[in-house]
Design goal:
The structure holds 2 protein chains of 2 kinds. Chain A is elongated. Chain A contains 7 helices and no strands. Chain A is mainly alpha-helical. Chain B is mostly helical. Chain B contains 20 helices and 2 strands. The radius of gyration of chain B is 21 Å and the shape is globular. The chains are: A mainly alpha, B mainly alpha. The interface between A and B is large, with 39 and 44 residues.
Chain lengths: 154, 506
């Protein structure tokens, strides 16, 4: 049980990821497959973000004590704490995974848009976005298509 | 690599910046191609950029031959904190291979695109092509694991679009491109996940730094899971059996130029990254050895047998070549899985040989496609009478694929089998021999139709391809012949690569 509590974030990631993968491969609808793909990618983003979180840590932003923000922050904190650690405290979350996943999210959006535009072209060419119907159209057209080189004139 | 030291390649100031110019060049070229007014201008930008990229990659290769390893800190941030390009002999070899095929492909695209891609798409096509080139070269030069993911996706997003453009010739290119996108993105996401595990275990993204920290870490489950995710993800991109489902459709549907480029560079760049992680980043030890011997080697052996048989029974020529590619990836991985200097060297040599010959084969198929609509093996019957030069180049590529003596393919198979025997892995040598025999069967099926059969009565007549298509085709096919006779250059590069990975003397 304690494992489930301490590793809650990983369990959430795994569940999300499996849902995404299942949607990706179980449905024949191309749009739904893109949804599954997005879910799958998002689970990775969640994994990275929880990876960088240090419990009790703050955002890794330095606030100077003599700035207006610093004075406002110091007013909310216990004076003994401020004397010992300064206004920023000592514990920061690791910002690097967050920066990395920001890049990965941008890449994911690009992939998604390319994927959706291919779906649009498929809809224009086949008149459907269902995998089985696309295959049926392809089969019919293969049978009806003009003769290839070896059959011409035969 | 000795050869490069002798030639004066570029002014020293340019050579010092060559590692970044080789990536930035095609990226800038891609932007310029979008803005160009017409197809002709876009093509010229593409050729000039690819030529510049090749020039710079030769400079990089010369510098690596002289200095051993280039560390190029991007933006002046020192390693391991900053992102760095780290180029050793293997990276330089791959960059040289990719840039060479890139230039030949760009030359070839001048005429080959006309029959296969809608005219209004040409400028965008050239832009996507240069984007892929930049992505692949960045992938093999970077020393940062996450940076590699970004380059992987830059190139992949380009290839999805390029495969889809094939719809003008074959409507099935669209579902194939979609399928490729789904598989490829799942692979890339697995790779990111693996990098996440490795980062959690080591706290670094710099590959050299990661290798050092993993060596002191001992048995770490998170790192091992990370490696498994990385290899599974890259395995999809490299079309490693059984993750190759996207490949036959994509190769068959894409424009010929894209098939050339994918076959010669896309899967190879992913294989490069697998080699980098398995042999270089991950420390030698029990886990790595088990991973190679019990997972990679059996899968590669299955690929060699199963996909060769699938190639024998495939009907369309492009599909035969595609299944053959999956089988040949198995050959390369079998060599790498030996993990000896000789085995890795043979694997890299085989990789170069296969990139050149498969590029030539797809180019020749594209040369036929300029004048005639041919898909199945029967469609190619007697095409040698009508387009003798293209057919001759196809013959050379096919001979190299089958491993006929005096071709590079023969030397590649020879060194691979002798490396397997030397390492005492008899079953691998036997698998390689059986695979070579199966290769002979499907190669013969194609050659028999092209050279020894008469065209069907009243069949559409093929014409010889224009010179602009024949020249790059001949260079590519000629390299397979040239390196079959004097193989000093590729062999020394493969040896240097293996030495850089395994730490043995070259």
């Amino acid at each position: 049980m304690s494992m489930a509590v301490t590793h809650f974030n990983y369990i959430a990631v795994i569940v999300l990821m499996m849902i995404g993968l299942y949607v990706l491969f179980a449905t024949g609808n191309l749009i739904k497959r893109m949804v599954g793909l997005a879910l799958f990618q998002t689970s990775t983003a969640l994994f990275y973000i929880s990876l960088g979180k240090v419990s009790g840590g703050t955002a890794a932003i330095t606030i100077y004590a003599d700035s207006p923000e610093g004075r406002a922050l110091a007013a909310t904190l216990d004076p003994a704490y401020v004397d010992q650690f300064g206004i920023n405290g000592v514990v920061y979350s690791n910002p690097l995974p967050h920066v990395l996943i920001l890049t990965a999210i941008v890449v994911g959006v690009a992939t998604l848009s390319v994927g959706l535009s291919i779906v649009v072209r498929i809809r224009e060419a086949y008149g459907t976005v269902e995998t089985d119907e696309i295959e049926a159209v392809a089969r019919v057209e293969a049978a009806q298509s003009g003769p290839a080189r070896s059959e011409a004139g035969a | 690599m000795i050869l490069f030291e002798a030639i004066y390649v570029a002014p020293p100031a340019l050579t010092a910046q060559a590692p970044i110019l080789v990536i930035a060049g095609p990226l800038i070229g891609a932007c310029a191609a979008v803005l160009s007014p017409g197809a002709r201008t876009a093509w010229m930008i593409s050729v000039l950029t690819a030529a510049f990229t090749l020039w710079m990659s030769v400079a990089v290769a010369g510098e690596v031959a002289r200095a051993g390893v280039i560390d190029y800190a991007l933006g002046g941030f020192a390693q391991p904190m900053g992102i760095a390009l780290r180029i050793d002999a293997l990276g330089a070899t791959m960059a040289l291979l990719i840039a060479s095929v890139g230039l030949l492909g760009a030359l070839y695209s001048g005429h080959a695109l006309v029959s296969e891609v809608k005219p209004e798409k040409h400028t965008l096509f050239q832009s996507g092509y240069l984007l892929c080139l930049a992505g692949f070269i960045g992938l093999v030069l970077t020393g940062d694991a996450f940076n590699a993911f970004v380059f992987l996706e830059v190139s992949s997003i380009g290839t999805y679009a390029l495969v889809g453009v094939g719809e003008a010739r074959d409507k099935r290119a669209l579902p194939a491109a979609f399928n490729y996108l789904i598989f490829g993105t799942v692979g890339a996401t697995f790779y990111v996940l693996g990098i996440g595990f490795l980062y959690a275990a080591t706290g670094t993204l710099n590959m050299a730094d990661m290798a050092m920290r993993l060596a002191t870490l001992g048995d770490n489950t998170a790192a091992q899971a990370g490696l498994a995710f990385v290899v599974a993800g890259l395995g999809i991109k490299a079309a490693m059996f059984p993750l190759h489902g996207w490949l036959p459709g994509a190769y068959a549907g894409a424009p010929s130029l894209v098939s050339v480029f994918l076959a010669a560079t896309a899967t190879k760049a992913a294989i490069y990254l697998i080699i980098r992680f398995v042999l270089d980043v991950f420390p030698e030890g029990e886990f790595g050895a088990i991973f190679l011997r019990w997972i990679l080697a059996p899968l590669a052996a299955t690929a060699v047998i199963v996909c060769s048989v699938q190639a024998i029974f495939a009907k369309e020529v492009r599909r035969i070549l595609a299944f053959s590619s999956v089988a040949q990836v198995g050959f390369i991985m079998l060599g790498v899985s030996l993990a000896t200097a000789a085995g890795v060297s043979a694997g890299v040599y085989y990789l170069i040989a296969h990139a050149l010959l498969k590029g030539a084969l797809f180019m020749a198929v594209g040369a036929f496609a300029v004048s005639v609509r041919a898909r199945t093996v029967d469609d190619f019957a007697g095409i040698a009478c009508e387009a003798p030069w293209s057919a001759a180049a196809f013959g050379v590529g096919a001979a190299s694929l089958a491993g006929v003596p005096m071709t590079m393919g023969f030397l590649a198979k020879w060194t691979l089998i002798s490396a397997a025997l030397e390492a005492g892995a008899v079953w691998i040598a036997v698998t390689l021999a059986i695979g070579s025999l199966l290769t002979l069967i499907y190669v013969w099926r194609m050659l028999e139709a092209i050279f020894f059969r008469m065209p069907a009565a009243g069949a559409e007549r093929a014409r010889e391809a224009p010179v602009g298509v024949l020249v790059p085709l001949f260079i590519l096919a000629g390299l397979s012949l040239l390196f079959g006779v004097t193989s000093t250059l590729p062999a020394s590069m493969a040896d240097a690569s293996a030495a850089a990975l395994t730490g043995a003397a070259p």
